Amino acid sequence: MKLLTIAIPCYNSAAYMERCIESLLPGGEEVEILIVDDGSQKDNTAEIADQYEKNYPGICRAIHQENGGHGEAVNTGLRNAQGIFFKVVDSDDWVNGEAYREVLNTLRRFAHENQRLDMLLTNFVYEKQGAKRKAVMNYRTAIPKDELIDWSSVRMFMLGQYILMHSVVYRTELLRGCGLELPKHTFYVDNIFVYQPLPHVKSMYYLDVNFYRYFIGRDDQSVNETVMIGRIDQQIRVNKIMIDVMGEQDFSTKDPHLKKYMLIYLSKIMMVTSMMLILDGSKEALAKKADIWAYLKEHDAEDYKKLRAGLLGILMNLPGRVGRRATILGYKAARKFVGFN
Fold first, then answer.
1. Average of per-residue pLDDT across 286-306
2. Residue 220 to residues 161, 188, 190: CA-CA distances in angstroms?
3. What is the DSSP string of 238-290?
4. What pTM was estimated for this model as a whole?
5. Which is deepest, 15, 35, 82, 194, by most CB within 10 Å?
6. Nearest-10 Cα torsion for 101, 201, 213, 19
């Protein structure tokens, strides 16, 4: 059995996937790198994947499938994973070598000592093209570092501080056990990947290293603002699935810190969805914004009240044109400061 499976969803990724793969090869025989070619046709992604499998047998494996989108590529990776732990690294991103060694040392220690680790967290760096300042997402104020803990030891997450796919390594059997199945042909499913397993996490460990390098800057990238507005229906689909996940939970037997964090995460997704619709500004878009808040109210009235009365809920629902302009100004200031998009 491998220590860690890393799935790399690839779709016409020939221009940058080699940097990603090369950064992961130093993991050696303990690591399984699944290069999932999601029906690429415009370049030689498939050939590059096959060449890595040929050059690194036992480490790299090329998997070819009909196009199903990012989520289906992750599903395929999870179905084929032989590692104790599972991570997704997007093909235009990469990892830091020194931090990678620390991650593997940590995972190896838990595996050899037969201690159950459900979720490992590390920092990630926004590698925004052209930006002089590289913003780092860390969890020092929220989670004790270098300790195996449960939700009761989690402290308050700051505004804008949240767990993303880039920062998480899950235990493979936990992902399978919670029934994770990401929707096909849908962007932004990385939020579901992180969110749905959270109620099943009993133990976590925070390693304070800048492991994952999250590249931002391609014009066709899914987090590009214009692209997100064009794909808003997919963002809404993800948002509704997360509302459903939240509404299905019985938190009466779970630590209150878990629900508190899941509400923070859901508020962030509600904010992103609302903001893209506000930026669109059309009557149809504003109607969709009203609909997603109505969906939350219908499926989880208690949490709707909490989110609607919170700071982000208030900012996303300021009335009239003047209110929407104020919201947009606040968003642009936050984007410049944090360095996202």
1. 95
2. 26, 14, 17
3. HHHHHHHHHHH--GGGS-HHHHHHHHHHHHHHHHHHHHHHHHH--HHHHHHHH
4. 0.92
5. 35
6. 70
